[in-house]
């Protein structure tokens, strides 16, 4: 394992980018050969840094700009719950297939490493609810695209999208355009 280069940039400025970079570990060949897994557990485990990162996400969007936060399973749940608690809004999990107990919408997509299906409860949002979507890593953008599609099918409006880290060379930001992407660290 090696630490991610601390010279990286991000949409909340170089200081935040450096902070995130200082708490990411590169894990080569996980979960399969050729993939460098970006492990953000050290960031979650550092209370002061995690709080600063969460506060930075809220400051970027503005605490009045969203009614609900969506976290993408599983690491997105950690970020979404913290934002929801800090701002007093609710949190909606977007889950992997087969985990939700009631009627759900499904969206399938290709991952950097494999295929996946995500689901959200059909009654998760009140019509027109403004939804902030969060996840740990943006790679090819398939996960985020499927999630935003699910939010809209369930009646929500995506008001923002934040990831702690973006793998710029995989083109996720371009795939999601014209939706704005807020990445604290871009490599
Ligand atoms: P993608 O759909 O290709 O943008 O992949 C993003 C999703 O897969 C996110 O939920 C990430 O947690 C996970 N992911 C994809 N690639 C990586 C990576 N290299 N390191 C860590 N997580 C990743």
TrEMBL record:
Coiled coil: none annotated. Transmembrane segments: none annotated. It is found in: Cytoplasm. It catalyses: AMP + diphosphate = 5-phospho-alpha-D-ribose 1-diphosphate + adenine. Its EC number is 2.4.2.7. GO terms for molecular function: adenine phosphoribosyltransferase activity. Pathway: Purine metabolism; AMP biosynthesis via salvage pathway; AMP from adenine: step 1/1. InterPro entries: Ade_phspho_trans (IPR005764), PRTase-like (IPR029057), PRTase_dom (IPR000836), UPRTase/APRTase (IPR050054). Residues 60-165 form the Phosphoribosyltransferase domain. Keywords: Cytoplasm, Glycosyltransferase, Purine salvage, Transferase. PANTHER family: ADENINE PHOSPHORIBOSYLTRANSFERASE. Belongs to the purine/pyrimidine phosphoribosyltransferase family. Catalyzes a salvage reaction resulting in the formation of AMP, that is energically less costly than de novo synthesis. Homodimer. This is Adenine phosphoribosyltransferase.
